[in-house]
Amino acid sequence: MAVPMKGASVLCFSLLLTAHMAFAQYNASEALTPPLGNSPNVVVYTRDGYQLYSCLKGTWSLKGSYAMLMYEDSKAEAGNVTSRFDGNGELFTWTLLNSLGDAAESGFSASMVSGRPLAWDYSNRNSLAMQLVESTSHQNHGAAATVSYIQRYSTSGGSPPPAKSCMVDNSVVKVPYSAKYCLWTQDTRPASVPRSLAVPNGRVVEGFFAKGHVTFKHNGSAWEEVAKYAKLYNIPGTDAIGEYYVYGDEDCWNIYNPNGWMVYAKRASKPVEVVRNCMPWTLLSVTNEKGVPVMLGPFNFVQTTSTRGGIPPTTKASKGAMAYSAYSAIYWFYTE
Predict the structure, then answer these.
(1) Cα 139 to Cα 335: distance, rounded to the nearest angstrom
(2) Which of 113, 216, 244, 290 has CA 20 to 30 A from 139's CA?
(3) Which helix (H) or strand (E) element contains residue 106?
(4) Rounded to an integer, what distance in angstroms lies between the CA atom of residue 119 and that of residue 123?
(5) 26 by DSSP, 3-state: which?
(6) Between the CA of residue 316 and those of 223, 224, 319, 324, what are the distances in Å?
């Protein structure tokens, strides 16, 4: 299931919900806004932050970073944020101190969320890039356990030293930086949809975050979608609990055992591009289901919302060429 959210909102496109427009001053890039269906939960700012650079053959390379975090509203200590590099690039980890209640309930004094950047904004050339980060893992219950996306904005400092100062290999320097981070959570209800995608009758009972790719094949004149596959999660960064794919002319959702079930559905209305340069949102009518628990079903409709990516290339190609486009979405299941 999707997780509880709280708070107001941070920036979005002009056609999105008013709440998503409230913090438009935080960044100027649409790419840095989490998909609809997520809401800001808490804002923190850095204290005593630094970027760690290492010198090698006349070039400074970023090795990691560290900063204490403070809550913007109360100015109380919130935890810290660190980053390091592995084979997949830079990995960030936010450690948030738990409240006394969360600590007593979970047995942990802090919870953690890690993530990797999805998008960057380098408009401020003298400072770190602003970023949108998607959660990739969570540790411990508490304040960070339900975070879906993190925005880095209002950055200052942190850029590498001049190349001419890199004179001794393996020397290390700390460059001060400051930034704010907005931590978002996935909503418990679907985002507002165009009228043509509204469910005619039913109530929403389940929502899954999906992350996968769309396969396109060039027919000689245009790109055509030939396959779609994704893993299903409760929220970004949690363990996979199922998979989604297209089988013939039907969409299929397969939730794993021990309480596994499957749902098949067909398009019920024309898809609508709600967010530019992102996969259209859809409404599908359930045609068959297997093993759906009585407490949830029977299902009658599925909505595809909160999409990101999943569009065909804009480049020309020869007939038979293949292309893959990463996408994410939230699938919402309805029952009568």
Answers:
(1) 33
(2) 244
(3) helix 100-106
(4) 13
(5) helix
(6) 9, 13, 10, 14
Stretch 59-64: mean pLDDT: 97
Task: Give the chain's mean pLDDT.
Answer: 90
3-state secondary structure (DSSP) of residue 33? coil
Cα separation, 326 vs 13, in Å, equals 21
Weakest mean pLDDT among 56-70, 162-176, 182-196, 280-294? 280-294
Task: Please calculate the CA angle 30-35-37 and round it to the nearest 5 degrees.
Answer: 140
**Residues whose CB is less than 8 angstroms from the CB of residue 216 and which lie 6 or more positions away in sequence, other chains included:** 223, 224, 225, 226, 312, 313, 322, 323, 324, 325
Residue type, 161: P
**The model's pTM:** 0.89
d(CA 307, CA 283): 13
Residue written as token pair 């759906």: 292
* The 3-state secondary structure of 39-53, one letter per residue: EEEEEEEEEEEEEEE
Q: Let me know: does 212 contact 230? Beta carbons within 8 Å.
A: yes
- The number of beta carbons lying within 10 Å of the beta carbon of residue 113 is 28
243-247 long-range contacts (CB < 8 A, ≥24 apart) are 244/210, 244/212, 244/331
As a whole number of angstroms, the distance between CA 52 and CA 62 comes to 6
Which residues is 308 bridged to in the sheet? Answer: 328
Query: In this structure, how many other beta carbons lie within 10 angstroms of the beta carbon of residue 71?
Result: 16
Q: What amino acid occupies position 76?
A: A
Q: pLDDT of 85-105, one tens digit each?
A: 998 999 999 999 999 999 999
| Spatial contact of 336 and 298, defined as CB atoms under 8 Å apart | yes
